[in-house]
Amino acid sequence: MSHATDPSNGWRLGTLAEAEGLSVTGDSDVRLTGACALAPGRPHGLVFAEKEAQREAVAATRASAAILPPALADAFAGPVIVTESPRLIFSRIARAFEPADPPPGIHPAAVVSPAATVAGDACVQAQAVIEAGAVIGARTVIGAGAIIGADTNIGVACRIGPRASVLANSRLGARVRVGAGAVIGERGFGLVPGPAGLEPVPQLGGVLIGDDVEIGANTTIDRGALDDTTIGAGVKIDNQVHIAHNCRIDGHTVIAGCTGIAGSTHIGAGCMIGGGVGIGDHVTIADGVTITAASQIPKNIEAPGVYSSTFRAMPAGTWRRRLALFRGLDRIEARLSRVEKNHRFAGDTDD
């Protein structure tokens, strides 16, 4: 959804609805200045709800307009956008209230190599560094203190956050968002034993990132050793994720925060990786896999589905008792083996 600059007195509700091909039940001329939570809501705010259990909150909200499914439309006294997908429509319309992009231009405190190419309508903020051979696409914003390495290509309408680093030979598609402090294209963690100890393996590849990818704050994506590390179109990566060298993440996969993915792993399309997951090296994960939070994945997953490998939290006393049983499993197994052996022996003598 694309909107012009937010008018000073807020957005007209009807204009926002029409941009999504929808209409308003009630006063379409209501002016909105932002989106807000359903409870308590606020005047000139827009809210949404999805479930019958939210009916009382819908009736009580102080918001000026709501996006609701047909079954809840009668619960709100004000103007309503009625849709079967209230969360999706709310998400799209709420983008109108995001801060506007900064104006184009190169800040005097930025350092831009004469051998770099920066689109005339791009924005390069203070203390950003753009090295030789880099190409910055139209309507892209390079945040304050960001570093764009040599021969890096950044597509149109991208946003590189403050202090983020997109290092040499990285290639970003269109509409890529890189969060503050993220590092793309750092040397991968490759070592080989030598006569005097471990020696680094040259990391000669790059990083290739498709269109519409989002990369969270302080996430790190290492460049490949020989081939590129690749992130497919539409992938969404949370904060503080690490993706090692030569990984391949296929399109529209979602990876939650604090996940670590070891080198040369291939994750299929449309996967959902929960927070704090650890994935071993050279692992292949099929399309359509969901991995729940904190799971450990040392081997391939060959079929779509939901996979877990962790215990749910329980009272500490219960956990300690179960841990004691776990530590005694070898002893219990030995006792069971003796019982089974004696039982078989007794059965033989009965014959």
Give your account of this protein's structure:
This protein has 351 residues and is α/β, with parallel strands linked by helices. Mean pLDDT is 95; it is low at 1-5. It is built from five helices and 39 strands. The relative contact order is 0.06. The strands form six sheets. It has an eleven-stranded parallel sheet with strand order 8-11-14-17-20-25-28-31-34-37-39, with no helix packed on it. A ten-stranded parallel sheet has the order 9-12-15-18-21-26-29-32-35-38, with no helix packed on it. It has a nine-stranded parallel sheet with strand order 10-13-16-19-24-27-30-33-36, with no helix packed on it. It starts with 10 loop residues before the first strand and ends with a helix. Helix content is 16%, strand content 27%. The radius of gyration is 27 Å and the shape is flat. It folds into three domains: 11-97, Udp-n-acetylmuramoylalanyl-d-glutamate--2,6- Diaminopimelate Ligase, Chain: A, domain 1; 105-307, Hexapeptide repeat proteins (UDP N-Acetylglucosamine Acyltransferase, domain 1, 3 Solenoid), CATH 2.160.10; 318-350.
